[in-house]
Amino acid sequence: MKITGIRTVLLTGPSTDDPYLRESRKRRSAAYIEILTDTELVGIGETYAGYFIPEAVPPIVDFFAPVLVGQGVENIAELWRRMYQTGNYWCRVGLGVAVINGIEAALWDLKGKMYGVPVYELLGGRKHDALPAYATGGPSNYPLERLAAKIDFYLSTGRWTSCLRALRRQPTSRAARPSSCGVMLAWTSGSAWTGTWAITW
User: Fold this and answer.
1) Which of 190, 199, 131, 137 is nearest to 162 (CA)?
2) Is 135 helix (H, G, I), strand (E, B) or coil?
3) What is the tens place of the pLDDT at every residue in 39-49?
């Protein structure tokens, strides 16, 4: 099986039914990457860049097409290395490597379809029977009582991990903690909270 082409599919639609996230983002975009072959199989991947700047994804995918067309999917690590080296000056971080990783996801999807196995089998086998759900919920610039209500909302949906981002001030009181017990707070590098505060809240 050989790769014959690669293309981007851009989609935009209603963002979510999440009332907290919908306040800040009414619509959501996505960029999917399809790898075509000389068979009926098509690999599909998504790049997170499509969420932020979908229009920039297709020209970058087109830039990497010559690296992939005519190749097989036996050695995905080598294809990744070739793409990375081709765009070495401008895709070591950021948008370029985000698109490369979306292409890589499509390559793994294609390889899994070629062998008729789930991709996790190609990556060494399943490691967990279940994983906790993660609710990011978007920006958290609320009064603390509203922030606590937001966490309670996510817990009510069965998600026990909540990520709070972009709160521009650290609460001085624990009075606004969510009422539910057992929340796991995930602190991200994009957050304005300190790691120590996030752990102790």
Assistant:
1) 137
2) strand
3) 999 999 999 99
| Parallel/antiparallel/unpaired status of strands 42-47 and 27-37 | antiparallel
**Domains of the chain, CATH where assigned:** 3-122 (3.30.390.10), 134-200 (no CATH)
User: 134-135 and 42-47: which strand pairing?
Assistant: unpaired
pLDDT one-digit tens code per residue, 151-196: 778 777 766 555 554 344 444 444 444 444 455 555 555 555 555 6
Read off the pTM. 0.77
3-class SS letters over 59-99: HHHHHHHHHHCCCCCCCHHHHHHHHHHHCCCCCCCCHHHHH
DSSP, res 48: T
What residues are paired with 163 via a beta bridge?
186
Distance CA(174)–CA(154), nearest Å, equals 19
Asked if 14 and 30 touch (Cβ cutoff 8 Å), the reply is: no
Query: 10-28 burial, b for 16+ CB within 10 Å, e for fewer?
Result: eeeeebeebebbeeeeeeb
